[in-house]
Amino acid sequence: MRSKTFYLFGLLAALAVTLLSPFLAYREAQRRAYETEAELALAYARDVGHRTDEAARQAFVGIGRIKRAGLTDCTPEAQALMRRIDLSSTYLQAIGQVRDGVIVCSSIGSTRMPLGDRTFETAAGVRVYLHVPVDGMGPDSLLGLERDGYAVLIHSDLPVDTSGARSGISIAIFHMDQPANSPPAVARGAVSPHWRAHLRDQRAVTFVDDTHLVAIVRSTKSATVALAALPASQLHEREKANAWRLVPAGLAAGLAFAAAILLLARRQMSIAAALRYALRHDEFFVVYQPLVNLQTGRLVGAEALLRMRRGTGELIGPDLFIPIAEENGLVGKLTERLLSLIARDIGMFLSEHPDFHIAVNIAAADLHSENLPSMLDDFLARSHAGPRNLVIEITERAFVDPDLARRTIARLRERGIEVAIDDFGTGYSSLSQLESLDLDLLKIDRAFIQSIGTGAPTSQVVGYIIAMAQRIGLRMVAEGIETEEQASFMREHGVDVAQGWLFGRPMAFDALEREYLARQAEIAER
Hints:
There is one protein chain. By secondary structure, the chain is of the alpha+beta class. The chain has 15 helices and 21 strands. The strands form three sheets. It has an eight-stranded mixed β-barrel with strand order 13-14-16-17-18-19-20-21, surrounded by four helices. Helix 1 runs antiparallel to helix 4 (about 230-280) and helix 6 (about 330-345) runs parallel beside helix 9 (about 370-385). The protein is rod-shaped and about 130 Å long. The two termini are about 60 Å apart.
């Protein structure tokens, strides 16, 4: 049932990924299109802002030069200076003296030029004339700036004549001292006065309305903002171009990921089905890893390890089939099969060697099973073994519920069966829990053993574990011993028993029996 649920979940996940991937790819296409077009619009707005600031700078530098010269009337000397200022400036069309809104003399002569009535005054005391009427020029051609009795005329196209402007682009300059929702001071193309309100207190902003993608940039040198707006149709065209590239790739990636999810789900189901098949067709076997007394060298026991071999000869490791068994409620059947296979392998060996024991791992789910004590009783009866011939190893991660663990351990100890905590240091147990669980043995995880002599931070942990176990009266088994240095360290620190490749790899029981007899004979000859 769990595997079917997992497969259904995987199917739904695969469907979600398949549908979601093209959607996310399209959203990415939109995001990239917006970023590209917004950056382009910002570039135009910054260029316009730079041109506006430069035009204003040249205007006020020119007015300053005339004031410093002290030429207050339209003398030939004053007009000559005006002409020099005009010729040396790239943005100024004319500069002249103003009286009552009329240029009375300028760099282009003594012809009087009214500045017009569409005007506003800035907080800095500059009067801005939005449309200066000049014969022979369009009504919106010239912009006037007046300060201290002098005015500068600027062609309104110069600040907004940004190089390489894309077709359909709208460009504008607003002065922040203009009334809200006023038309821009200078504009080219369709510009809404309401766009300016989007800037608020920001340095720059981009946004999309119904018709345009708009960028607005505030000047750092004056109270002006520059605006550039691209047609929204160009944004949509770029979105489509991006989508043609990204959506198929996103769909392909989604399908690949969905296939991987389904493959994993099917593999989970297939392994679960394979487990059930293996239980029915006896595809499990047991290997035994020797446990050696570090002081005498005697072989005092073995850890029984369940293995699975498919009918095709394929070996499936316990790191794969045990979690699947736990997920699918099959771990109890595996424990029962393990005990059955051990009893078949050992025959009368345990009854003939009462000092030898077999260590059997049980899973966390076995702690919840009412059948565990009866399974162990049945094993002892079938093997004619005594309780001391059996050690039950419970992983530390099974002690998440200490009360339940305590009750299960008590039932085992009532039968005279010893209990070991396995993989100590990798799970949830604390020292106080260990003291309350009434254990017999502590198995030191191989991760701590392998760090001995390496200088790694974990190399110090094993000493603390040994001292703790000795303080609360636990015998110890060291796992994963591979070198004589590791064995010597354990021996010198009072560890009783060890297992690992230094003493022997997992083997069939008949090979273990031969190893046991050979060691016994060797010890007897000493």
